[in-house]
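Field reference: sequence -> structure
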Amino acid sequence: MASEDWKLYGFAPVPRDPEVLFKDHPTAYGPNPKQDLFVVDDFPLPDTPLVREVRAFAQRELDEQTFNHSNRVFVYGAALVKTHFPEWKFNETQSAVETYALSCLLHDIGTAEKFLATTYMSFEFKGAIVARDLILSLGGPEPEADSVCDAIVRHQDIFAKGGNITMVGQILQLSTILDNVGLRANLIHPRLIETTTARFPRKGWSEHFARVIEKELTLKPWCHTSTFEVPNWKAGVQSNFATDVRGNDVMRPFD
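Structure field:
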């Protein structure tokens, strides 16, 4: 491994558990966290050849709701880090921003029709492999492909309390759960949510994603998504995760 690549592509280790990450945080802790007044135009996707190619692939393979979700996740994550973790120097490191953009665009690629029902693997793991292979086939650096793959593999691994995760992986986790269930939405300004959902409409995302969850659980009751469920989950048992997604009151006005 090249010793400096981790600095370029978002591998910096940060605490996995958000409760640890945000404990006594100067701008994010407590009932009134800082909310910088950003709008969607403040966080465009990087205009690089690799991002353009991957964006086209994602738009071709994903349904509209999932593609829009992937774009919203990029915006929310970039804004959250700019406000609350400037010391990470994420927004100043263009290779890390590109890596995060690729991770966002491809984090749910495993739910695409082409992949979800054509593998026994959990959608995150299949999607991570697809993403890594795609980036390498397009000439992307292997460390960047590895960082994207790692972030996608772990993006629903939200119950682990100890240890670390990559910077890009943590941003992806925080922003996906924000869009999916509204958790920690108070860390970003309401105007950012308004402008982002106007640019990338949800179009019933809560119901749409809940059905994807239920579909994968039915197809693959061993899947990683089942970690959100009761032990020994079986078909016919109401999904806790799907219920939480449908219960996203924060985003309900925009659905």
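Note: The first strand starts at residue 13 and ends at 15.
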